[in-house]
C-alpha cells in the first residue's frame, strides 16, 4: 500500500519555562520536518496570581491549563508545518522543566482548577525556579546531615529548594489545607503524560534527581516525621511508586488527547523525561565524560560517568538516569539566559532599544555586537551569576547576583559581557568540581537557545579552555523527546541506536584562544575568591539580606 | 543722588562640574535677585578630546575656554534676570570645583590653547574627578609615610589622586614635554580670578586642602626629588607662593573682563575659593561641629572644629581653611549625584523613560516616586557607592562600585534606592570617623542640588539618625561667593557678619524615624563589613581589576 511507503514519524514536545515546542521528526534519520511553539498564556506567575493575589518574593508559579494549550495548538501546527499526515505518527514523547510540581486531586485535576482555589497560591504549579522553599531545604539538609542519611551524598551533600521535598514541606507548612487536599504531588513531566495516556506513570529520571529516590527507596517515614509530624506520610500518601523507565511506553494516546492533538488515538506515549536529560541522545553525547550543557534560561549539565563518585554540590547522580548502564550525573546553573533577559528588560536604556530597532537587531544582538569589541578585562567588571540563586556547586537559592567594578563610565554592553562571563565562570566551577572528584570531563557539548550567540560560546570556550562541540538540532529537547518516543515505539532496539541514527553534533565548533584563556584564568581566580567569600559562609550577607527582604514583604518592615 | 539710594549688589559665580552659575545678590540681606547658568560646551572630556584623540580610563578633562564663556554669557544673563544696573555691583566673587588644575604658560594661557597642543591630553585641564593619577598618589603616600612627613596626618594619612601633586607627577611622568612647557600649575579657582583681575593670586584654601601647604610650607625639594629626580623643582618652579586669604580682594576687574561680563571695570574681585568651602557662610554653618554637606554630583563635607585632630581618611584640615580662627575640616564622597545620573543614563529601560515623559516627570523623579513606596530592606540590595572611587575615608580611586542582592525580580527603582542608601551609608562612615577622632558633629546641614529630592534627604536623616538642616538658598556656592565678594569689598567687617546678614538655613528640616533608623543600623553594619573587606585590603579585587582594565585599554590585552 502507498501509505506504508510513507516514512514513520514521531512527535516530540518540549515544555520549557515560557513556552512549549512540538516537533515532527522522521524516525529513519531524525530529520525535523516541522515544528511549532506556543507561549504559555500565563507565563511565569512571580508577582501575582491571575486574580491579582500578590505573591511573595522568590515565588514562581504556572497554570497547568497552559500546558494543555500546547497540545491543542503547537502539536497540530507542527503537523501542518511538516505537511505530515497524522497517520504517519507512531508515538509521542515529552519532556519538561524539573522540578516542577503539580498538586492534584485523585484523578489528576490540578488543585488550582478546583472551585474556590483560584486565589490560593499553593494550589498552583510550583515551577522549577520557585525559590521560596529555601528554609525548608535548609532544614532537610541539616537533618539529613545529622542523621547521616545515605542518599545525601548522591546529591552532592545538599538537597535543593527547587525539589519535590522542599516544595512539599513548604506546602504543608504554609497551607495545611491545600496539603490535605492534595492527593498526588506530581512532577509536571508525569502530569502531562497522564493527560496524554490517562495513566499516572512516575518516571525514573525525575524521581531519582528531584525526588530523592535512590537504590529503590525514598527517604524514610521516620526522617520525614522528624522534619514535621504531619510530613511523615508525604512519600506514602502523596508520591507515586516509580514505574516508568526512560524510553519505554507509559501508555496509549487517549481519545481526548487525540482530539487535542490531531494525532491518532492509541499511538504510543513515551514515559516522561526532563528537558535536559532527554537531550543527551539528540546531541550524541551519551558516552562517559561527555558533558552536555543545555543552555537556555537556565543551564543544565548532564553527563554520564563510568563510576559512582560523590561530587560536592552536584544536583544528583542516578544509576541509568540519562541512559541505561551508566551513572547519570546532573549539575546546573539556576539562571543564565534568564539573567541576560532580566538585564535587557530592566537595565538597558532607551538609546540602545532605539539603535537596535533602527538597525533591525534585537537588544541582545546589539549588546553582543558591542561587547564583542572588548578585550578580556577591558570593562574592569566582575559579576556573580546568582540572580536566580546557585544550583551547583553551592546549592543555595538565598544567594543573589553581584556586580563589582562599576565606574561612571561603565556601559551596558560592558555589564552584559561581565554577566556572560560570570555564567561561564559558574560553568567552570562545575567542570572543576567533577574533575576534582574523579569524574573527568572529556568533552563539552552545548545545546539550547544560547547557541545562537557566538560571542557567548567563544567566551565559554576561552573560560573553560576547552573546545566546545555543538548540537546539530536547534530544538534539542524536542528532538530528544522524539528519539525517546521512537525507542518506546520499538523503532530502535535502544536509545544508543536511536541516538546514532537520529541525533547529531558538530565536534569542536569553538576552540579556545590561548591568550584569552590565560587572561580569563586571572579573572576566574577573582571570581572563585568572591564565590567562596559570599557562597561558603565567610560573609553571609546575601542570606541576611534575603531574610530582611522576606520580612519586609511580609509587612514587618518600615 | 538717586543712584546712591539703589541697593548695592555683588555677583557670585559658581563653577561646577558641568556648568557655571552666576547670581546677583543684594548686599544688604542676601536676596538673590537673578541668576543664570551656562553649560560648558565641552562638558567633561572622559572618552576623547574634541579632535577625537582617545583618553584612557579614569581620565576627566575640561576646556578652559568654557569657563570664560560662563563670564560672557551667564553673568550678563544674571544681571538681566535681576533687572540690575551693572553700576550697582561693587564686587564679584568666584568659586570652583577642586582640585581642578590648569597647566599654563607664563602669562596664564592654558597649554591646550598653544598651537600644536590640541591633540595632547595632558595640555588640558585635569578636572577634580580625573582619577588616572592613583599610581602617583600611591607612591606619594608610601614615600611620605616612610619619611614620616609631618604634613601627612593633616590629610587623614593619605594624599588623594585628585590633588595637585599626584596630578602634577602624572603630568611629568606621562608627558615630560608638556610638563617642561608648563610655567604655572594653576588651580582653576585661581585661574579664573587671574582672568578677571589680571593677577595670579594663589588662594589659601586650595593651597591648604589640595596643595599640601601646611604651616606655611610645601613639601620639601628633597621629598620631591625622591619621588622623581625631575620633580624636585615642582614647588619652586610651578607652584605660586600663597598670597590670597579668603574674603579679601585679589585685584580689580580688568577692562577685558568688564567687556566679557558687562560689569564695571575696577570693581573688587575676591580671592578664589572652593565651591564647597565657600558655601558654609551661605548656610550659616560656620560654628564648630556644624557639618555642611554640599550634595551634588559629588558631596563635600565642610566643618569647622575648635581643635586640631587627625581624622583618618579625611581630606584635610587647614587652619582657617573655611573661616578664620577655627580649624577647617574637609571630607568628601567622590560620586553621589554622578552615580544617580550614571544609573539613569545607562541602566534605566525605555519603559521608564516613556512613563516619565507621559507623566511630565524626569526619570529621577519617577524612580524616586517608585522607590519611596518601598520599606527599608524590601529590595534586598546593598551597594557600595564607589563608582567614582572613595575620597573619604578610604582615599582610594582604584575602588569601584558594587551592587549585591540582585535577583531576577529586581527593578530599576530598587537599585536606584539602594544607590541612594549607599551614598547615605558613605556619609555615615565619614560622620563616625570625625566623632571617633574627637571632632564631634553636632549638626548636619545639607546644601546642593540633591536637596530637591525629599526621599533622599529623609533616607539620609534615617541612616544618620540625625536631624538634617537645610540651606535656604538653592544656589549656595554662588551665594557664598557673593558673600565673600561683599566681605572683600568691605561691605561687612568679616565673613561671620556677612553670613548672618546674607546667609540662611532651615534648622531640622528632616527628622529621623526611629524604626527606620533602627532598620538602617542593620544594613549599615552590612555596608561597613563590605566597605572594610573591599576597601581595606582584605580583598583588593577592585584594585586588581583596575590594573587589568588599564592594561587592556593600553592595548596589552586580548
Could you characterize the architecture of this molecule?
Two copies of one chain form a homodimer. Helix content of chain A is 38%, strand content 18%. Chain A starts with a helix and ends in a 5-residue tail after the last helix. Chain A has helices at residues 2-5, 64-81, 134-147, 164-174, 176-181, 188-197, 204-210, 221-227, 234-238, 255-261, 337-346, 350-358, 363-372, 412-436, 454-464, 476-488, 495-502, 514-535, 541-553; strands at 9-15, 19-26, 32-39, 61-62, 89-96, 101-104, 125-126, 184-187, 202-203, 242-244, 249-252, 268-270, 290-295, 299-305, 316-319, 327-333, 382-384, 401-406, 443-447, 468-471, 505-510. In chain A, helix 15 crosses helix 18. Chain A has 558 residues and is an alpha/beta fold. The model of chain A has no long low-confidence stretch (mean pLDDT 96). The interface between A and B is large, with 66 and 66 residues.
Amino acid at each position: 500500500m502507498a501509505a506504508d511507503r510513507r516514512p514513520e514519524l514521531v512527535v516530540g514536545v518540549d515544555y520549557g519555562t515560557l513556552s512549549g515546542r512540538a516537533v515532527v521528526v522522521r524516525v529513519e534519520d531524525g530529520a525535523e520536518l516541522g515544528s511549532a511553539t506556543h507561549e504559555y498564556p500565563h507565563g511565569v506567575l512571580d508577582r501575582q496570581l491571575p486574580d491579582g493575589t500578590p505573591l511573595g518574593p522568590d515565588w514562581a508559579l504556572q497554570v497547568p491549563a497552559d500546558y494543555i494549550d500546547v497540545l491543542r495548538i503547537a502539536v497540530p501546527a507542527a503537523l501542518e508545518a511538516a505537511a505530515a499526515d497524522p497517520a504517519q505518527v507512531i508515538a509521542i514523547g515529552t519532556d519538561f522543566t524539573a522540578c516542577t510540581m503539580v498538586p492534584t486531586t485523585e484523578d489528576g485535576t490540578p488543585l488550582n482548577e478546583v472551585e474556590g482555589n483560584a486565589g490560593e497560591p499553593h494550589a498552583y504549579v510550583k515551577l522549577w525556579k520557585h525559590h521560596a522553599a529555601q528554609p525548608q531545604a535548609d532544614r532537610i539538609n541539616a537533618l539529613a546531615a545529622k542523621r547521616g542519611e545515605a542518599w545525601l551524598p548522591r546529591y552532592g551533600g545538599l538537597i535543593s529548594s527547587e525539589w519535590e521535598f522542599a516544595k512539599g514541606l513548604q506546602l504543608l507548612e504554609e497551607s495545611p489545607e491545600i496539603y490535605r487536599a492534595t492527593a498526588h504531588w506530581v512532577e509536571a513531566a508525569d502530569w502531562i503524560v497522564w493527560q496524554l495516556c490517562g495513566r499516572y506513570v512516575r518516571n525514573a529520571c525525575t524521581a531519582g534527581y528531584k525526588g530523592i529516590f535512590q537504590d529503590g527507596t525514598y527517604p524514610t517515614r521516620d526522617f520525614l516525621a522528624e522534619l514535621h509530624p504531619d510530613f511523615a506520610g508525604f512519600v506514602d500518601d502523596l508520591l507515586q511508586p516509580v514505574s516508568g523507565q526512560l524510553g519505554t511506553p507509559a501508555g496509549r494516546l487517549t481519545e481526548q488527547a487525540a482530539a487535542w492533538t490531531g494525532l491518532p488515538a492509541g499511538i504510543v506515549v513515551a514515559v516522561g523525561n526532563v528537558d535536559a536529560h532527554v537531550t543527551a541522545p539528540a546531541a550524541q553525547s551519551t558516552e562517559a565524560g561527555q558533558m552536555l550543557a543545555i543552555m537556555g534560561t537556565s543551564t543544565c549539565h548532564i553527563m554520564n560517568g563510568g563510576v559512582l563518585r560523590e561530587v560536592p554540590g552536584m544536583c544528583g547522580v542516578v544509576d541509568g538516569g540519562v541512559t541505561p548502564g551508566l551513572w547519570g550525573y546532573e549539575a546546573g546553573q539556576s539562571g543564565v539566559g534568564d539573567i541576560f533577559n532580566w538585564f535587557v528588560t530592566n537595565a538597558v536604556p532607551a538609546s540602545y532599544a532605539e539603535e537596535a530597532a533602527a538597525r533591525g537587531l534585537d537588544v541582545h544582538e546589539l549588546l553582543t555586537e558591542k561587547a564583542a569589541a572588548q578585550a578580556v578585562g577591558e570593562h574592569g567588571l566582575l559579576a556573580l551569576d546568582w540572580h536566580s540563586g546557585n544550583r551547583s556547586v553551592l546549592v543555595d537559592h538565598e544567594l543573589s547576583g553581584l556586580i563589582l567594578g562599576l565606574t561612571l563610565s561603565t556601559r551596558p554592553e560592558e555589564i552584559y559581557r561581565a554577566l556572560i562571563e560570570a555564567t561561564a565562570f559558574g560553568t567552570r566551577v562545575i567542570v572543576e568540581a567533577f574533575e576534582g572528584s574523579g569524574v573527568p570531563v572529556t568533552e563539552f557539548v552545548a545545546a539550547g537557545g544560547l547557541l545562537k550567540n557566538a560571542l557567548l560560546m567563544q567566551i565559554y570556550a576561552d573560560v573553560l579552555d576547552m573546545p566546545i562541540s555543538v548540537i546539530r538540532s536547534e530544538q534539542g529537547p524536542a528532538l530528544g523527546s522524539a528519539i525517546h518516543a521512537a525507542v518506546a515505539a520499538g523503532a530502535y532496539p535502544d536509545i544508543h541506536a536511536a541516538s546514532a541514527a537520529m541525533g547529531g553534533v558538530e565536534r569542536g565548533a569553538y576552540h579556545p584562544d590561548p591568550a584569552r584563556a590565560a587572561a580569563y584564568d586571572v579573572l576566574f581566580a577573582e571570581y572563585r575568591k568572591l564565590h567562596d567569600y559570599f557562597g561558603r559562609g565567610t560573609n553571609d550577607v546575601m542570606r541576611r539580606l534575603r531574610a530582611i527582604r522576606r520580612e519586609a514583604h511580609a509587612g514587618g518592615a518600615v
